[in-house]
Amino acid sequence: MSKILHFHQIQTSSHLPLVIGFFDGLHKGHLRLFQGLNKRQFNILTFINIPNKSKNLLYSDNKRIADLEQLAPANIFLLDLQKHNLLAMTFIHRLSKNIQPSHIIVGSDFQFGKHRHGNISQLKEFYHVKTIKITPKYKTTNIKKYILNGNIPMANKLLFEPYTLTGVVKHGKGIGHKLGYPTANINLGNNVIQPKEGSYQAFTYINKVKYPSAVFIHNHLLETHIFHFHKDIYEKIISIQLIKYHQTMNQTNNFTSLKKIIKYKVQSIQSQFK
Description:
Blueprint: E1 3-6, E2 18-20, E3 43-48, H1 61-69, E4 75-80, H2 88-99, E5 104-107, H3 120-124, E6 129-132, H4 140-148, H5 152-158, E7 164-168, H6 175-179, E8 184-187, E9 198-206, E10 209-218, E11 221-226, E12 237-247, H7 255-271
Parallel strand pairs: 1-4, 2-3, 2-5, 3-4, 5-6
Antiparallel strand pairs: 7-12, 8-11, 9-10, 9-12, 10-11
Helix pairs in contact: 4-5
């Protein structure tokens, strides 16, 4: 199991390959950085609390780190740029002192240090550096566009794993229960992108068990109706894996009309699993 260590607390001489990157939404392009490392130990250095990347992220820090753990590195080092926004040469010095990598692997557009003034040429003066060119189609901005436009299948083709939202189940207004289709609600927060508003075909994961679900997203709130599920899961952490966008949201203040709309959406989505 990978160790999660803060960069300024490291006291190690690992002499292992070090892969550096932000990895907001681990995608198949990123996997090129890890080719050839699956049969040997390696470390990852990633960044948290980046000043210019506090909003419109694909994933929270916890989700990013959980995805990186699946690659089975020996250690994941976290550099908090809000607390330690190092100058480029200070960053290089700290790498030598704290980690001592055997070599470094980065994307071909990698920049580092305060105001991103550090470049690969500088890094090569001190380390053996392997640079990997990632195909433009895998850019995170493209994946975000697909999600914002409701093209979930295309986003999922590019991502390491299908697009997944994770959160703690909170009490809502109980409208779903009154309509006959109770939902588990999670707040998406303001730092991650909100997928296109509407209904989705999805899987909900609870304690690693996968349940077919109909999901509704609006106003940074995700509501998942899990088919044939009746357990109490308030305050539990759940994950929702989006499969396909279904329909836009229908606005109505009439309870009877709303019940018909939700019934149609739920039954329509449920039929897609058969």
